Every structure is written in structure tokens, then in C-alpha cells.
Amino acid sequence: MNLLEIDNLKVNINDKEIINGLNLKIDKGQVHALMGQNGCGKSTLAKAITGHFAINVTGGSIKYKNLDLLNMEPEERANRGIFMSFQSPREIPGVNNLYFLKTSLNLKREFNGQEELNSAQMLKKIKTLTKELGIDDKVLKRYVNDGFSGGEKKTNELLQMLLLEPDLIILDEIDSGLDIDALKRVGEGINRLLDGKTSVLIITHYKRVLDYIKPDVVHVMAGGKIVKTGDISIVNILEDKGYGGIDNASS
Ligand SMILES: Nc1ncnc2c1ncn2[C@@H]1O[C@H](COP(=O)(O)OP(=O)(O)OP(=O)(O)O)[C@@H](O)[C@H]1O
């Protein structure tokens, strides 16, 4: 079953056309990798899926769980199970990290008709995850990402993700700023969610992250659309020959 179905999507930012007729289908439980040269529109696609305020969808459709995603507010998309890990996670000074985690999960639970967790239940759940991820609990008392190192920001995103148990995860350059050990930990954390129910769209420039999070399908984006679709062999061609080595006929 398709979890996400994008048909002929067109997106502008500040009146500039960034995406022009993009098609993409992601089945439940599949991992898709999206590659493409700098500035080709990969993050813009992620923003279109999550409902970022800066982008303007001018055509096409996105169906998620068979619902019209483009008609939903960003909060509803999140509550229905879409999670995005940002290329550069924002610092939110003044908002306590533990409060942020608790509120996000309880809002999602409330939206989905589940009982809210009380403080003790929530703390137990969160501390189990920090222990498993090797995160120092001191980060829970700090403001969200405020003064965190690049790697700490990414692992904090992973903590949010594992707590919220999303159905569709979008990882925008999750490997940037991570050292080898942190990348391995993040890869293991993501793999824990890959139980055949969770789908992943991973945006990356490098094969190394795909050694940890194995894609079922690989896409190459250029000129505002997906121009090539195949398996991991595409990544090997890109590593060897760059984007010039890819013929742009979609397959
Ligand atoms: N707020 C904005 N205002 C104007 N142009 C923008 C804005 N955001 C993105 N763009 C432009 O949209 C194009 C696509 O950007 P996007 O971030 O989607 O590319 P990308 O494929 O993710 O690139 P990278 O691999 O370098 O991260 C770029 O030319 C970028 O300058």
C-alpha cells in the first residue's frame, strides 16, 4: 500500500519554480533515498511534505494514508505521523527540552484518541530512550538545541523521533556534522524503527549513511523532478562518476 503518493508536484519559493512535475510513491515500510546536486530542490520537497510556510505549492497533489496532505496544517501532518529531521536543527531558546518532548508526544496522543501520559510515565519513557541512545540526561533540562553541538542536535532529533514513533520519517542530511561513532548510533536508532511499518525518505549526498540505513529504492533529482529511480547501484555510479555518470532517463 502506498503511504505517500506525490503526483505531478509543482512548488515555487519566492516566485521561483523549484519543483516542476515531481512524482514519487513510497510504500509502507520502505526506505527511499533521494540524491541530487546542491540546490536541486531536495529540501524543498521535504518542506512541501511537512507543510513549511515558505513554500508555495502551485500544482499537483500529495496523498498520505490516502488523505489530501496539502490541505492539512503542519501540526496535523505531524500528528498523523510525519516526522522530519532537519538538515540544520533550529535552536529554540526559552523552551525546555523535556517540556518540548512531553508536549509533542501528548499532543500526538490526544489527536489520535489516546490517553495523555502523566509526568512520571513520560519521564520513564524518555529516560529509557536517552539511556539506549547514550544521551546525557542533562540535555533534558536545557533549552531545545540551544548551544548543542552539531552532533548533539542530530541525536536530539533522533530522541524526538524514537519517542514519537512516526509512520513517515524524512531525514534531511542526517549524517552532516556527525562523527563516525555518532553516525553509527543514529543509524542503529533509525533501524530500530524499521519494522516494516515505518517508511523513510532519506536525503543524502553520501553513500556512508546508506551503509547503515539500507534503501529499497534510490532516486536522483534534477531540474525540479525525479529523473532516475533504481536500486543501490545508482549510488555506486554516483560515487564513481558523479552526476554526469547518470543518464537522466527515468527507469
Ligand atoms: N527561502 C528561500 N528563498 C529563495 N530561494 C530559496 C529559498 N529556499 C530555497 N531556495 C532555493 O531553492 C533551491 C532549492 O533549494 P533546496 O534547499 O531545496 O536544495 P537542496 O537540493 O536541498 O540542496 P542541498 O543539497 O545544497 O542542501 C535553491 O536554489 C535555493 O537557493
From TrEMBL:
Keywords: ATP-binding, Nucleotide-binding. The keyword Cell membrane does not apply. GO terms for molecular function: ATP binding; ATP hydrolysis activity. It comes from Thiospirochaeta perfilievii. The keyword Manganese does not apply. CDD domains: ABC_FeS_Assembly. This is Fe-S cluster assembly ATPase SufC. It comes from the Bacteria. The gene is sufC. SMART domains: AAA. Residues 4-248 form the ABC transporter domain. It holds the Pfam family ABC_tran. Belongs to the ABC transporter superfamily. Ycf16 family.
